[in-house]
Amino acid sequence: MAQPADLLTGMPAGTAPPAAPPRPVWLYVRRWLALNSEALRAVLIGAVALGLFLLAWHLLTTYRVVFFVRFTNVPSPAAVYESLTRAMHDSKFMMHVLLSCRRILIGFSLAALVAVPLGLLMGRFKLIHETLFPITEILRPIPAIAWVPMAIMLWPTNEQSIVFITFLGSFFPILVNTLHGMSLVDPVLVRASQCLGAREVSIFREVYFPASLPHIFTGLTVGMGVAWVSLIAAEMISGQYGIGYFTWEAYSLVQYSDIALGMICIGVLGLGSSTLIRGLGRLVMPWNRT
Amino acid sequence: MSDIKQTRGHVEVRDFGLSYPTLDGPMPAVTNASIHINPGEFVSIVGPSGCGKSTLLNAVAGFLKPTVGSVTVDGEAVDGPSAERGMVFQQYSLFPWKTVKGNVEFGMKMKHLDKASRDRAARTLLGITGLTAFENKYPDSLSGGMKQRVGIVRALATGPKVLLCDEPFGALDAQTRVIMQQILTNMWQRLKISVLFVTHDIDEAIFLSDRVYCMTARPGAIKAEIAIPLERPRQQSMMMSSEFLALRRGLMSLIREESLKAMGGEISDLALEGLSIDMHGQSFADVV
């Protein structure tokens, strides 16, 4: 016998509902889609745009378009992909990549280890600020690349001077942002901590440091970007290994598809390292959900 | 037990004056102010904005040094901020990077209390104020009223002698404010702690306090001291009683006079016409 279906459950009315009614999976899928529609939209549009970019690149290179800029010698996406598959099996290419990553890791980490504490101290103690600030302000506008000749004189090995350039590149963004963070610490929070019995060391650790953390991470993200810029420049000028050197060498050896491969590789590495820092920031600052 | 409470938290501010150095010489913010808080007493300071009531409070907290006069708590001169004098701020001032429980435990952590007793004390205090469900939340996700409950509990968690409140409910809506006043009164009665409460809200001052000091316009001085003889525990309905309203009228006119002075002398005469108020058969002048 036919019974009218219940509007909500879709089950025939009158049938006893099970103790825990199994919810259909599609309901969750639909809700998830509805909740994440903004993000999905962004991913979708991004993917389409990327596809269009590749298509344009493909068309411009296959038809060797000359329109103000010349695409005659520019490698096609297919050629670059071929280079990539070749490079993946080439231990030398991997060594270039790993060496660059190692230089970034050392240079950037040293910069963070020096610039963050220095910024915290400069932000907290007036005398240190007054002493060091003029020096840092003069050194800061000098691009890391301009340090290359000096770095070669200063450091006994090429490797050290390249790491030094990377260090310099990321040092100032980290320092400046840490200082900025320190200058924005709410004095009322400092007073609140004092009223709760905090003394100098505790105030520093429990208030100034966490309050500056969001800005420190901004500095780290910017610093990481500049570290890559500086590294690639340094490698192109004085390197014998590294992804920057690889890219420059490809030009000298007329292996044009390797140029694009090197460039894309730098882009991906830069993106990866910034993402890593952002993720670390989210991990360290669970309160700072934006 | 009650004996200990009775002798704890005696605040004495004597002939207090504070001035800021300017190019034109020292600029007085507060002059010749003397107030006291008996142990376990709830005392408010009201006055027009900029009258230096917060200056006075900050001096008791230890953030400002008096130019002249003295500030003592239980006979000891105040020398810098300490956990003995807990403070509740208008802007809540919770640490955004600490959870509700982390904020409450902060003072006990500074006292190097072990984790277990910190945990126990924090949970008890959060339970009393109905915040147990939020103990692991960060302040950013709380409403203003909840934030200030955490602020009060945090200040009380270290067991201070005095609780200093700097317009703590000024940023809250009217309904929340009333509830918060009840919560604060309950906590105060449980803990029998001395409270110095700064506000510009006359109703709030009368409803909460045993005594109210009224300050003059800048440079601030104590203009009047008014006892609030309303019985405790106080109910919301008391705010409609003739006794309450009489106190309110008296304080209102005191403050109004000062507010007008603060805004500029020329309008004060005009506005003060017909403002002669009787309080319990006393004239306005007697109260002052």
Offer a few descriptive terms.
heterodimer, A: 290 residues, mainly alpha, MetI-like fold, 2 domains, two-stranded antiparallel sheet, 75% helix, flat, disordered N terminus, B: 288 residues, alpha/beta, Rossmann fold, 6-stranded mixed β-sheet, 4-stranded antiparallel β-sheet, 10 helices, 24% strand, globular, disordered C terminus, ABC_transporter-like_CS (chain B)
Provide an overview of this structure.
Chain B: This is NitT/TauT family transport system ATP-binding protein. Chain B: Belongs to the ABC transporter superfamily. Chain B: Residues 11-242 form the ABC transporter domain. Chain B: GO terms for molecular function: ATP binding; ATP hydrolysis activity. Chain B: Involved in beta-(1-->2)glucan export. Transmembrane domains (TMD) form a pore in the inner membrane and the ATP-binding domain (NBD) is responsible for energy generation. Chain A: The chain crosses the membrane at residues 39-60, 104-125, 137-155, 161-179, 216-239, 259-280. The complex is a heterodimer of chains A (290) and B (288). Chain A is an all-alpha fold. Chain A has 2 domains: 25-70; 77-284, MetI-like fold (Orthogonal Bundle). Chain A contains 11 helices and 2 strands, in the order ααββααααααααα. A two-stranded antiparallel sheet of chain A has the order 1-2. In chain A, a hairpin with a 1-residue loop joins β1 and β2. Chain A starts with 24 loop residues before the first helix and ends in a 6-residue tail after the last helix. Residues 1-11 of chain A have low confidence and may be disordered. Chain B is globular, with a radius of gyration of 20 Å. Chain B is of the alpha/beta class and 288 residues long. Chain B has a 6-stranded mixed β-sheet with strand order 6-7-8-3-9-10, sandwiched between helices. A 4-stranded antiparallel β-sheet of chain B has the order 2-1-4-5. Chain B starts with a helix and ends with a helix. The longest helix of chain B has 22 residues, at 242-263. Chain B has helices at 2-7, 53-61, 100-110, 115-128, 144-156, 174-191, 202-208, 242-263, 268-272, 284-287; strands at 11-22, 25-37, 42-46, 68-73, 76-77, 85-88, 162-166, 194-199, 211-215, 222-227, 278-279, 282-283. Chain B folds into 2 domains: 2-84 and 160-287, Rossmann fold (3-Layer(aba) Sandwich); 92-159, no CATH class. Chains A and B meet through α8 and α9 of A and β6 and α3 of B.
